[in-house]
Every structure is written in C-alpha cells, then in structure tokens.
C-alpha cells in the first residue's frame, strides 16, 4: 500500500498548530514569516488505514532572523512633563514614541532583542544621565536615540560623539578661540578639565560650550558610531518627502552620545510637523532606519 503524509507546524511563541498540507503522497514546503522556535510535525499513515495516524515525527526548529542575537536599545527622546518640540497640537515626544514603536516592531520581526531606556508606551520624564546609565548597564550592540527637531528646522540629521569620556580621553582635545589646542584629562559633572601653564582649568559642556571636544584616537565604539550615522544618512536619502539638513552627520558633544559606551547615534528624524506625524511617512522612515541597521550588522 501507499504511504500518506500530513504536515503541521506549531509556533512555540503562540502555542498554535497550523496544518501545512493534509494527507497526500507528496512533500510539503513551509516558509516561516518570522524568526523564533517552531515545532515541525509529520503524521504518517497507510493509505488504507482508518486511523488518524499510524506514526508521527516531530522536530524543533529555530528560525534565525538577520538580526538574531543582536541587542538594540531604542531611546525615545523626551517624555512626561518634557514634551520636546511643540507645534500646535503636535508634540515631539509623541512622534518619538510612535516612530520608536514602529522601529521596534520591525527589528523584532528580524530576530533582534529590542530594549528601551524609556518604554515608548510610558509617559515619564527621564534625565539624560539616567538614560546613559541604563544604556551602560545593559551594553547593547547598538544604541539609537530618536528625536524630532523644531518645526522650523527642515530636514533630518544624525549625531554622534568621537569624544567618550567614560571610555578614555587619551586623544580628546579642543581648540580655544585663539586656535590653541588643549587636551582633556577628565570630565566630571559636565566639566571637561585640562591643564594650561601648569594650572588645571575646565570648560563646561552644554549648549553654550565655547568649543567642541573631539578625539584624535577614537574608541571602536566612536568609530562604529560614525559608520552607523553615515549608513543612516545613505538609507534616509531614499525618502522622497524629506531631505537631509546641511552637514547632516555631526560629531559633537551631545550628552547621550558622549556618555554612552557603545556605538550610539542620535537621529533628528525631521521637523515636528504634520508631515512627520503622518503614519505612512513614519513607517517609511522606520523602514529606512531598519535597512541601515541591517547593513551595519551584516
């Protein structure tokens, strides 16, 4: 007599079985749509048998996505009592949250482990040092801080810091207003210290800082931050409804990118306006950002 085969698959994450092909003499093809653990089953019986099955075989299968094993931390900017940029009824923090969730969904579907500084479903305020501390405790493979600019700022931009005071400062320097180079010896409480004529001095690193600190011997985290920032730019250039700002990739001293000890980039995804609040446009930005992440790791 002939032998009949029936094929099943179970998604372990949902504990649900699905029949791939009912009893027949032919083989079956199954293509998973997401990474994860699955149980693949074959029921076997004689074509003359009155039983539901005469024998069976089950095998566990792990499907790995292109980002399987990678941990990516997303940092939705602002939140709670800090709305970020405001344009009428459009709040930056809401744009940051919605874009973060779209990116997270797409990354998870590719097998990535997505974690957050602030969960985008929460409405709490977090200070920059709290965010950096969480990132440095978890040490993800990549850190992305997601922001939108003021409504009058046109275009998108990417920001990283070659200066990483929590890693090392051996090549960290700045030039003063007279063009003289000073080398940093440490940073404490947003003050970057240096020696001039045997006297210890400091500059305060904030929005009014007199100079930008760079690192002539950047760490691997800083080098990879620059690589990822440029991959983001290349991918975002494919969008039709928004363009990059002038000098869209910047090496400067934003707190969240200089205090984190892994590859980290802050993206200003565009102005806080109705175009960027459009769900279709948000989805397109998320797609391009995920494309850049895939290129970075692969």
TrEMBL record:
One of its GO terms (cellular component) is outer membrane-bounded periplasmic space. CDD domains: MurNAc-LAA (cd02696). Residues 132-294 form the MurNAc-LAA domain. Keywords: Hydrolase. The keyword Hydrolase applies. GO terms for biological process: peptidoglycan catabolic process. One of its GO terms (molecular function) is N-acetylmuramoyl-L-alanine amidase activity. Pfam families: Amidase_3. This is MurNAc-LAA domain-containing protein. It comes from Alkalibaculum sporogenes.
């Amino acid at each position: 007599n002939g032998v009949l085969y029936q094929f099943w698959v179970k998604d372990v994450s949902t504990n649900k079985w699905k029949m791939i092909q009912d009893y027949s003499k032919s083989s079956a093809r199954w293509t998973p749509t997401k990474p994860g653990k699955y149980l693949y089953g074959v029921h076997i019986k004689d074509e003359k048998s009155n039983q539901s099955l005469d024998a069976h075989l089950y095998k566990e299968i792990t499907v790995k996505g292109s980002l399987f094993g990678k941990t990516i931390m997303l940092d939705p900017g602002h939140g709670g009592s800090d709305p970020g940029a405001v344009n009428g009824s459009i709040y930056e923090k809401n744009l940051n949250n919605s874009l973060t969730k779209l990116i997270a969904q797409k990354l998870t579907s590719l097998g990535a482990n997505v974690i957050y500084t602030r969960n985008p479903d929460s409405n709490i305020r977090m200070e920059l040092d709290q965010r950096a501390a969480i990132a440095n405790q978890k040490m993800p493979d990549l850190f992305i801080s997601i922001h939108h600019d003021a409504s009058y700022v046109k275009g998108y931009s990417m920001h990283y810091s070659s200066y990483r005071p929590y890693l090392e400062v051996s090549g960290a320097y700045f030039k003063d207003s007279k063009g003289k180079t000073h080398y940093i010896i440490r940073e404490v409480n947003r003050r970057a210290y240096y020696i001039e004529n045997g006297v210890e001095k400091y500059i305060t690193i904030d929005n009014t800082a007199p100079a930008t600190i760079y690192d002539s011997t950047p760490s691997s985290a800083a080098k990879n931050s620059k690589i990822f920032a440029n991959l983001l730019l290349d991918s975002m250039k494919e969008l039709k409804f928004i363009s990059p700002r002038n000098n869209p990739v910047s090496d400067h001293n934003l707190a969240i990118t200089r205090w984190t000890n892994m590859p980290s980039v802050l993206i200003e995804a565009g102005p806080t306006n109705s175009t960027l609040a459009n769900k279709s446009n948000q989805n397109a930005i998320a797609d391009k950002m995920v494309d850049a992440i895939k290129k970075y790791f692969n």
